[in-house]
Fold this protein.
Amino acid sequence: METDVTFFALAIPAVLFAGISKGGFGSAASFAAAPMMALILEPAEAVAVLLPLLMVMDFAGLKPYWRQWDPRTSRVLIAGGVPGMCLGATLITVTNPDVFRLLIGLISLGFVVYQVSRNRGWLHRQKRVMSDRMGLIFAVAAGFTGFVAHAGGPVAAVYMLSKPLTKLEYQATTVFAFWATNLVKFTLYVMIGLLTWSTAFAGLYLVPVALIGTYLGVYLHRIVPEALYFTLIYVFLIAAGTKLIFFDALI
């Protein structure tokens, strides 16, 4: 894997996007970095480079929320997330990069459709508390999408938003659950050969960018309208998702 000028030209803004999202605008849009980097790297390399950086961001946010999470919701997300990631690992080992690229593209467009539908009121928040059994289904889906595209947040949110969690409990549960599942994801990435010395060193160069993005997100949260930020994310995801889905026709 080459870390040339083209790599850094796209990787730096991609990691900044992720850091800003986690630091100031919720973590759901942080997965936008994956489709951005998948435009110049093989999809497996893109998610492998990003994983240690996302773990750095999660670790930085863990201490302020220590023991503030909801234990039951956390257990459901972790218990369902692990088999979901194993399913993702199995799929990746038996498919070619184009299928992987297609999945990232479809998840990108699906995220936009979901968020716009929710913002327009076409999808309503679950009024009844979702059972743990149903929560496990969403957690498995979150584990799968999280493994192939670092996009577990939006799926997990469907379950979490049905729970009577305070703002603090919601954020703390998200931070803790994804920190824990990312440790498992890291192990699986190593086991199936996604995370290599090459991707690790490429990610190491971007650690300062990840931290700057996280702190920048905290600052921008105060001065940039959330609607503007997410509009930019949606525009990019539509463009990147379309490019990834129609990769063969557009290259």
